[in-house]
Amino acid sequence: MQEKKDKDREKSPKEEAEEVKEILSVVSTEIPALIKNIIASVFSEEAGRSMGKAAGAFYKELKNSGMPDTIALQMTEDYMKTFTGLGDILKKIGKKGVSQQINIKSAKSEEEEE
Q: Residues of 3-36 as b/e, b for ≥16 C-beta within 10 angstroms?
């Protein structure tokens, strides 16, 4: 009896395709916006102040522990590169997302013309 209920709930290929189309439509608009907002928050003035404070505290702790200036400075630079590297990755993902969004919209337009 459970099998009959499952068969009754099964979607046709066309219904499944429509559902996938709806999901891709949402993904193509929501994900790029989300990434854009994340990038904006990472590179905001407030985020810059926070990163500066974090770098200063990191450097100070290294110096307080007896680390030589050159090593403490290099480690602090590497620490900051972690933040900027993350920002670069997010930018690339954001650009890729916009590119994919354009491709999806183009494919939708072609389908509608047919």
A: eeeeeeeeeeeeeeeeeeeeeeeeebeebbeebe
Largest pairwise CA distance in the chain:
76
In the numeric block, which tokens belong to residue 10?
């099964």
Contacts 24+ apart (CB under 8 A), 1-7: none
The amino acid at residue 43 is F
- Predicted confidence (pLDDT) per residue in 49-82, tens digit: 888 899 999 999 999 999 999 999 999 999 888 8
pLDDT, tens digit, for every residue of 2-36? Answer: 555 555 568 788 888 888 888 888 877 787 777 77
Q: What is the pTM of this model?
A: 0.47
- Ranges of each domain in the chain: 30-113
Rounded Cα gap, residues 93 and 87, in angstroms: 10
Q: How far apart are the first and last CA of the chain?
A: 41
* Cβ(97)–Cβ(35) below 8 Å: yes
